[in-house]
Design a protein that fits this description.
This protein is α+β, with helices and mostly antiparallel strands. Helices cover 46% and strands 24% of the residues. It is built from eleven helices and 15 strands. The protein has a four-stranded antiparallel sheet. A four-stranded antiparallel sheet has the order 2-7-4-5, with helices on one face. A hairpin with a 2-residue loop joins β4 and β5. The chain starts with a strand and ends with a helix. The relative contact order is 0.09.
Amino acid sequence: MSAQKKVLKDNYLFREGDSPDAMYIIKSGEFAITKTKGTSEIMLAELKAGQMVGEMAIFDRKPRSANVKANKDSEVIMLPYDALTSQLESLPVWVKAIMRTMNDNLREANKKIRILETQTQDEDRYPTHVINKLLTIVNFIGFKFGEKENEGIIVPQNRLRNFTIQVFQEATNKMQSMLGALKELGHFELTDQGEGRQKIVNLNPKFLFDFVDWYNEWLFKPDKDKVSFTAEEIRVLKGVLQYAQKIEPSPTGLRKINLSDLQNDSMREVGFLIKPEELNSMIEKKLFSEKIMEEAGISVNVNLNDVEPIAKNWGLIWGLKKNLK
């Protein structure tokens, strides 16, 4: 009746919305239960060896209500619902009624807990519109009142402070956090000049100005037209693009990436392992071509000119979310 299944680190046992067919007992390793929220995942709980997951759908067969992702290489014992149902049928009616009621109550309780947890995590000091607003302010002050120098544009500190508070009505500590985050990401240079004075240099004014335009347009798109990327997808994407830069482009500008070569060479070439399955979601989102089956193996095509701006823009989004404090 049961079967054992291995789930490698960062792979999913199942995803939110999947049709259920079995419950699982964790034999070894560790899993995270997460909910997809916009471009990221919110972790709800962690499960360790000896615990069970996927049991709630045994009665109602409702789609999976959350993702279950391996935090490390793990192994589970799979118990198919069909086999379990036949055993449940032999139980007294009153026992099945109690179990079904407990299952329904637990599902409802979990739903309420998740709402509370997501609300708590959504109390974000830097929501997306605030991030774009702060970037707009510093871009505007630099272009309107700044001085050009070899490194970039010097942003006048007093003007920036006054406009932040008086015109845009944002806190100066938030702006200072934004400047610190941009410095960490290599886009700004901050030099302490004593007595509270600071030299602020925007090292990448064109990129940041274009980013604000792009991000504003993206934020106001209908949800059905938005394509978003997780931080992990962008980390992998940047590694793939770094690897692809060494491949000679075709006359049409496409670079063919052999997925076996990518996996074998990625640790040496980009500093971390890239598995072929990690490209699947990005193929679905049209960053790469569909997989091409050839004698030399499976490959995908990529146009760097089309994909690099996506990696840079989403890299900035996730970099800011990580560094803003």
